[in-house]
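Please describe what follows:
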Amino acid sequence: MKKSLFGLEENHVAALSYVFTFFTGLPVLILEKENRYVRFHAMQSTLFGLAMLVVRFALGILGVLKGIPILGWIVALIAGLANWLIGVVTLVAIIYMILQALKGVEFKLPILGEIAHGQVNK
């Protein structure tokens, strides 16, 4: 395996970039200048974290509607369940991406993976 940041193996740095999505992906992306494999995973992690933040923020806005009798309660309940489900799916996706990065696989998420690949290969 090739070495990357701080003398760590590239697959370890790539996996670490997923641990807290954009909170770890962005610093790795900024610090790593050479290794395309690490940069891809850091970019994908950053994009994934930001996308999940936007989705959960939008669902949170829907939760504000709970003040409206009946319809608002139903919308708020659905938004709350969707938010919970997205949290579980996000956790599973992060674990899967960490495992793929550790194996040395350049796993691409739909849409975000292609964007990350395009940005890294400019």
The chain has one domain: 5-113. Residues 7 and 13 are 10 Å apart (CA to CA). The radius of gyration is 17 Å. The longest helix spans residues 71-103.
